[in-house]
Amino acid sequence: MAMATSSRLFWASRAAAYLRISTFPRAFSTVLKDLKYADTHEWVKVEGDSATVGITDHAQDHLGDVVFVELPEVGSSVSQGNNFGAVESVKATSDVNSPVSGEVVEVNEKLSEEPGLVNASPYDKGWIIKVKLSDSGELNSLMDDEKYSKFCEEEDNH
Amino acid sequence: MAAAGLTRATSAARPLMRLVTMSGVPVLQQLHLEERLLRTTGDNWCIINDGTAPPTIVMGVSGRVSELVEIQPVLRDQVPIVRRFSGGGTVIVDQGTVFVTFICNKAAVTGLQPFPRDIMTWSGQLYGKVFDGFGEFHLRENGRLKQHHVSTLSISIFKYLWFMSTSIMLTAMYYSARKHTDFLCRMKEYMPSRSFFTDGVIAALGEQFSVEPTDIETVLSDDDDDEFVPSTKMLSEQDLEGIASSKESLIRV
């Protein structure tokens, strides 16, 4: 039994490394490598001077089934740490705060008809806005995947 | 996950909870005050409004008017509709409604994450103390009280603050097509008086916070933020007529 368990853990960690997913000793929410994270549970993926923003798996899990996403206008400005929209679940409404500053160049229109994408695919199809960055230096104040994982663990165990 | 409990804190350790008590304040004014306190201060607040006038329909931030409200009777009877800044369901409120709102920062309740589950656990314990001995009243996950439905609940999370508003209905009036009379009861049939309920909430809070009554006029006069514009708004007759005559999938007011 012990050997089967360790074998499963070995292959699980190999699979996780291939998929760029961090693994944990306990069953926590998914955290992706190569993303940056805010302490208000938003993620940002940076490609050049463009950034994609959404809420994390930890956040969607705690919020519950999302029923509505309030999106900003394309062309509006966002600033780091300030809210630009909201996510409403069956349990609560939560502000969504931008991890970066810049101009909104695209919003995920699919969320108007399929808000559940935020739950089902928080890091992919459930993205919320795309931003043209105004200050890439702000990324230094965000957490990497390891720090964010630890942050969530500390919050859950507090 | 360790749940945050409603434990008795020592007087030295109790965080400050500023208390505003009002009576009969129009719900639009109440919501504007709450939104201002939430957005412009980082303090903990408890706002109690005992009854409101005129009778008003209050909707959550994402509610679709055409699905939740009978527009023609509302236009005919000129019932105000307010879309509030927070989430949650739709309710009609009047003199028979007691509102209790909490605005809390992250440090207000030890161990409480600003997510619905923790907030519901904490508030359930608080109201459990208030209703203790008055029958089967317990806050359920969907905001309804077990067995007897007397309230609506709105929870919103704003960065490091969380907001929870409960409207306790002493009587009930609905303009919706849904029938609630089969499970709704009147609070007054269970509690000796309204003040008994509000005093109970304040007493329960006092076990955990250092409660400081604050005059509403002081709150408004202290406010230096003239740039703040609340998003809570009353829908105009033109808004409603537009919804009634158009498909709301194209219009969200």
From TrEMBL, chain A:
<protein>
    <recommendedName>
        <fullName>Glycine cleavage system H protein</fullName>
    </recommendedName>
</protein>
<feature type="modified residue" description="N6-lipoyllysine">
    <location>
        <position position="91"/>
    </location>
</feature>
<feature type="domain" description="Lipoyl-binding">
    <location>
        <begin position="50"/>
        <end position="132"/>
    </location>
</feature>
<dbReference type="GO" id="GO:0005739">
    <property type="term" value="C:mitochondrion"/>
</dbReference>
<dbReference type="GO" id="GO:0019464">
    <property type="term" value="P:glycine decarboxylation via glycine cleavage system"/>
</dbReference>
<comment type="function">
    <text>The H protein shuttles the methylamine group of glycine from the P protein to the T protein.</text>
</comment>
<comment type="subunit">
    <text>The glycine cleavage system is composed of four proteins: P, T, L and H.</text>
</comment>
<dbReference type="GO" id="GO:0009249">
    <property type="term" value="P:protein lipoylation"/>
</dbReference>
<keyword id="KW-0496">Mitochondrion</keyword>
<dbReference type="InterPro" id="IPR002930">
    <property type="entry name" value="GCV_H"/>
</dbReference>
<keyword id="KW-0450">Lipoyl</keyword>
<dbReference type="InterPro" id="IPR017453">
    <property type="entry name" value="GCV_H_sub"/>
</dbReference>
<keyword id="KW-0809">Transit peptide</keyword>
<dbReference type="InterPro" id="IPR000089">
    <property type="entry name" value="Biotin_lipoyl"/>
</dbReference>
<dbReference type="InterPro" id="IPR033753">
    <property type="entry name" value="GCV_H/Fam206"/>
</dbReference>
<dbReference type="GO" id="GO:0005960">
    <property type="term" value="C:glycine cleavage complex"/>
</dbReference>
<dbReference type="Pfam" id="PF01597">
    <property type="entry name" value="GCV_H"/>
</dbReference>
<dbReference type="InterPro" id="IPR011053">
    <property type="entry name" value="Single_hybrid_motif"/>
</dbReference>
<dbReference type="InterPro" id="IPR003016">
    <property type="entry name" value="2-oxoA_DH_lipoyl-BS"/>
</dbReference>
<comment type="similarity">
    <text>Belongs to the GcvH family.</text>
</comment>
From TrEMBL, chain B:
<feature type="domain" description="BPL/LPL catalytic">
    <location>
        <begin position="28"/>
        <end position="108"/>
    </location>
</feature>
<dbReference type="InterPro" id="IPR004143">
    <property type="entry name" value="BPL_LPL_catalytic"/>
</dbReference>
<dbReference type="Pfam" id="PF21948">
    <property type="entry name" value="LplA-B_cat"/>
</dbReference>
<dbReference type="InterPro" id="IPR053264">
    <property type="entry name" value="Lipoate-ligase_2_inactive"/>
</dbReference>
<dbReference type="InterPro" id="IPR045864">
    <property type="entry name" value="aa-tRNA-synth_II/BPL/LPL"/>
</dbReference>
<protein>
    <recommendedName>
        <fullName>BPL/LPL catalytic domain-containing protein</fullName>
    </recommendedName>
</protein>
